[in-house]
Each structure stands twice: as structure tokens, then as C-alpha cells.
Design a protein that fits this description.
This protein is an alpha/beta fold and 225 residues long. The chain has helices at residues 14-21, 35-43, 49-64, 76-81, 97-105, 121-134, 150-154, 158-172, 187-197, 204-215; strands at residues 3-9, 27-33, 70-73, 93-95, 111-115, 141-145, 178-181, 201-202. The two termini are 22 Å apart. It comes from Neobacillus bataviensis.
Amino acid sequence: MKKRLGCLHAHYSNIEYIDNALSSYDIELIHFVDPALMYRVTSDENFKEANAQNKVKEQIEWIAQCNVDAILITCTNYIAILQEEQLSISVPIIKIDEPYFKYICNIQQPQTILFTNPATVKGTMDRLNQYAYNHQKSVDIEVIVINNVFELIMQGLKQEYNQEVSNFLNEIIKGDEIISVAQLSMVDASKKVEYKTSKPIINPLDTLISSVVSQLQLDKKSVVI
């Protein structure tokens, strides 16, 4: 029986990444997008943490009522806000960053993580450090934010955004350093540079998809000849 995955995004641009990455699997995707929550969290001083937690709880429980087999959250800030112990659902929640954290926590060497959205850095790194602590891992990480670029993707200028990210990656890829991009929006540019330079760049999409396929025991679509 075809599995159904409910996906919660903070920005509509993330839909395409998940759709494309799972297109060869027998799964139905239902997308929910709410950019307003992150806008209020970062811009509205009167919007308290408890308000944000209640909103995320409401969204997750709403998605769970849509007969989904699992819920995927692609926004790291949503994940940081989520208080799972407050939820009254049995549907498993897949967090985009946990397979990514697992992968980079198994790397012994120093590594660099790139962001374009400054607002996601603290939430992501707090969760990464907590994940490493919980799993008794030690990580040596330098964080770099590519400044003045994220506005492009928010304005729908995806091609220009990808070019800026690609330019930056090409500048910093030199030797055998380990580099990863922390956001879904950076995946296309990182894959382009990876292909061009033959140097691996870790991204949260590849690690996520293998985890989703495993957790939901997904089958490939049948090929009709």
C-alpha cells in the first residue's frame, strides 16, 4: 500500500527538493507551508516562545489528522521550537536535520558547515551540539554564513541565489577539507560544484532521503515498459 508523508515547510521553495528526491519512490507527498511563523518569531517582539510552540503543536496535530504515515519537518527552526512531549499523536516525526547530524557526528576530522540564513544558525547548532552530546560524539566544526544571499531565495531569485552559493563554494574548496551545507536551499548549488570539482559536499537532503526510505520501507516505483 502506498505510504503517505506529510511535509511541513517554512518556505514553498523546499517542496521541489523533497518532490524530486522522492520521485522514484512509491509514496504520496502532502505539503504544508507556513512562512508566517518564522516571520513572527524573528520579527514580532510580542510573539512569545510559548506562542510559537503552540502554533507548531497545532500544525503537527493538524497534519497528523490527514491519515499520514509520518510527518517530515524541513525547517530546522520549526524543529527547535517543537516540544514533542506536548503532542497527542502517534504518527512518527522525521526531522530533516537528524540524519544529517548523525552523518557529520561520525566524522573525526575538522569540518566546515555553511549557512545562508543567519536566523537558522543558532537553532541548528544548538541541536547539533545536543545531538553530539546525547550520542557521546565530539565534533570540530567551523560555521560560515554566506552573507547577503538568503534574501535572493526569499525573493524567488533562485538562479541568482544558486550562483552566489556556487561562487562561494568554489572559493573555499581547495584541499581535502570536509564541507557541508546546512540548508535545503543550498543543495542544488552544492551538487553542481560537487560535480564540477569531484569533491564531495555533504548536504541534508541525501542523508534525509536514505533515512525516509529506510524508516517508511519505501519501494521504488514500478517501471512500465
